[in-house]
User: What shape does this take?
Amino acid sequence: MRLPGDIDLRMAFAVFMRNATDYRRTWWLNILPNFFEPVLYLLGLGIGLGYYMREGLEGKDFIAWLAPGLMASAAMNGASFETTYNMFVRMTFAKLYDAYLATPAQIQDIAFGELLWAIVRAMMYGVVFLIVVSVMSLFGTSIVTSPWALLLPVMLALIGAMFALIGQLYTSCIRVIDLYSFYYTLWLTPLFLFSGIFYPVDRFAHGEEIAWFTPLYHAVRVCRGLSHGEVTTSMWGSVVWMAVVSLVLLRVVPWRLRRRFFR
Amino acid sequence: MSRLALREEGFECGDPAAPWYRTVHIRGGVLGFRVRESGKQPFEIQLTMTSRMADDPGLAIEARGLTKRYGDRAAVDGVDFRIERGEFFGFLGPNGAGKSTTMRMIYRATPVDDGVLRVLGHEAIPQSDRAIKSRLGVVPQEYNLDERMTAREILEVFSRFYGLRGEARRTRIAELLEFAELEDRQASPVAELSGGLKRRVQIARGLLGDPDVLVLDEPTTGLDPRARRALWDKLIALGERGTTIVLTTHYMDEAEKLCDRLVVMDEGKIVAEGTPAGLIADNVPPQVLEIVVPEAAERRRLHEHFGPVALARVELADRLLFYGADGEALLRRLFELRDGTDARVRSANLEDVFLSLTGHGLS
Ligand SMILES: Nc1ncnc2c1ncn2[C@@H]1O[C@H](COP(=O)(O)OP(=O)(O)OP(=O)(O)O)[C@@H](O)[C@H]1O
Ligand SMILES: [Mg+2]
Assistant: This one.
């Protein structure tokens, strides 16, 4: 089956399955940090720092306000790791793409297969976190309070796709693995700190206007809206924003990768 | 053309015992025949061979003026060659000759800058990449295997690219593990396999799609003599099954042993083409006297002494090669001057062809 952009789904699935086969070997090494990192933030900041913020934020308990943003960032991290370091290693050191390209697969199929896998990884991070906070909600810490939350897994997939594609774009442009330190410290870390996870973006002048142009802000807004049942037009706007960026990158990434590999 | 194929076309072939019955055996199955009813009784058909045009289905690969540039250097510089179906075809040449670049153009990993390349009837343009690659098996120069996976896992992963599933997939993988003699090691991670075994995993992977053409880029480089021979046997077996095999190599003995035909490449160009024996016969006298002479003065003395007795000569670092029709005559000439402890007579081989054509050694 072919998708627009001449993406052959069977080939993409083959690439997906190679990653799944490889992951099966070490899944327990990977899944634990996935689980702990956002949960540690939730406990450390939500319960620790939250204790001193009795009046909460925007009319919510601090922990309830914080948790959806952490969920979005968990999906971001899962997807990003997969299409940065992991993809780079497969592409350059393991020369796996050369092996794929010697089969009937084309570069766009490979990129799409990697994308599907990154989405699965993002959902592992995000959905594990969603389960944790849902359980906490059952035991009195009301974090996820709305049936709209049933849409969260779908949104986590979209967030994962968007960040996976951004990572793929960066990966397609760099030649040395060391350049990822910039991606992490000057891109993902600022996104994590200034996208309204820990405090509203309008804490800084023009915060909202600037944040609108960055991806994690929209991801956080959607997760928060669905968790709390505050479904607004601007939240749907954020969904559209992420979808548009993803669709554009879905075209740009194979083009970049083709220029890199077909020379 | 087999009886079966004719039947499919709507022809009945008749009784194989009949006096007029003929089977046509064509190496590698050249299909360039027109089938026509003659109208005579008993039923008879005529096979007319079609001319070898550019889209001759008997050709596996055809290149005309094939060129690939990196910057303003041409890695492959206007080469022409034709590889027939079922042929074992070699590209021989030193480092940087452009062999890999040519292979990469064939298996569609590198664009063609100039000239025409047809692979299995398809023009090598992006639109036909998938069609070409689905009929091609590739064993690249570098190892590119998933080191943590086992041979079996790698075959399972890559079989999906060829649409193999279920029972067909299981039998194909079992066949290939057997063919590559990997059954004992199928459960070891590739990282633990020797170079020869890794090559065999790559070859098994390249054969998953049951290719019409198998392209191997220096498959035996880095293997010990025994592993090389074992690999040769595998390749010969494949060739006998009718697979077209295209391989590159630095080794003359390999090219001589395996190839029906070969081209010699140097600096992006094809400098000679033919069968191994034909290349030798056409380009160099049959016998060579090879003398190791470290001193330059002694080399000059020998040059003068041999004079026109040697039909051709080559100086290679500390070795002198004198060519002639009769090895003994060359040796006698040497004994007129001095003893021959550092000399030997041998038949000319492809290395001599290469030397005579390019003036420098292979590798
Ligand atoms: N990606 C590339 N970028 C720039 N130059 C290249 C590239 N690939 C090959 N070349 C150049 O093209 C020329 C031919 O290289 P190629 O790899 O085809 O040679 P080869 O005959 O396969 O040599 P070897 O026996 O060492 O494998 C060399 O000069 C090489 O440096
Ligand atoms: Mg090479």
